[in-house]
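are you around this afternoon, could really use another pair of eyes. what follows is a protein written twice so to speak, once as letters and once as structure tokens for the fold. i want to understand how the tokens follow from the sequence so walk me through it. anything you notice is useful, everything is just below.
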Amino acid sequence: MLYHNPVQIKSEFTFFSIFGILLSLSAHNNHAQRTDNILNNVRRNEDYISTNMKILPDRQHLNKSNILHWHRLSKHTRHISALILTAAVMLSFLLSLTGCGTGLTLTTPISVTDYKLNTYVQIDSYTGVNKSVLTDAIALCDYYEHIFSRTLSTSELYRVNNQETDTISDKLYELIQTGLEYSRLSDGAFDITIGSVSELWDFTTDTPSVPDDTLIKNALSYVDYTKVNLTTDSDGTHHISMPDGYCIDLGAVAKGYIADKIKAFLVDNGVKSAIINLGGNVLCIGEKKKGTDFTIAVKKPFSDSGEYMELLHINDTSVVSSGTYERYFYSDDGTFYHHILNPKTGYPYETQLCDVTILSHESTVGDCLSTTCFVLGADKGMELIESRDGIEAIFMLNDGSKLYSSGAKQYIQ
């Protein structure tokens, strides 16, 4: 589980930027030299205008230290000063209407939270945008769920799994193709056709149980990613074919893909600094402020005290964690069962790893690699990470020890 820890950020406009606007508003009085003389006279009388006026949603900047002493000014100076003060008040008011000012970097993020994809989804934007941009971004979870869900009867993937269609959308084609790539990369240790087995295990019910072994063995006969074929016609139409009974499960890759699409949507709508949290997938846009990273806390597996496994300092980066602690249960005889299933046996993987955390630029890659490395095990998993540019990883073993890829510690300060 991942958390982030906000740091206060200040945004300031100089007086001279505002004053430039005011000069255009008062173009009817084209006496620039006279204006300079008046302002110099103001300074001599120990009156000043702040050169670092903070743009805030309230009017905290309109205090005695930041405004002019009206009784000491001439009529013309009061006219100029009134324009300055009016503009400042109007700007402050407009900012309060637009979520602290479109494009500004905020001291407190605009935050939207909802329950989607069987997890809590949260977006914190440190760029001032209308809140509807964030709610529209979260709504993309519903849009993509109706494409990628294995269980939703109205989804595109559900229709594919039930042989109701062989024509698929660009998005489903793209994600299945990605899943097949990592299935090949792991030589089937990660297999997107695990769906027939996944259907037998229910880790969300209040009374989970181990499926009948006969059912598991039967389901395994429908698991083989090499039997999935993707084709594209000359007109760009995509098709899929696979044997009856096969069931594609994109649960290990879809959240990362959706996180990347949410990021792209936010960036297209002017967001330059934000953090997206989809349960075990965290994706940052830019920095919190120039030179300041986001801080991500990776929860220690099975810890009830909120203890951290690691604190990561990142910007414009994805952090994805997968592990045995996410969904699991103990059987009546005390055997531990977790949700990452072995496509060769139909039962949870037996591995020395309890957590795999991947740092990458794209959350889709992090999602795929976190599961792939987990099923490959510590040695082969780390070997895979070291073979790929721009990817770092932290593995936690069941004994509490940790393994780091060669560049991972740059994120730990």
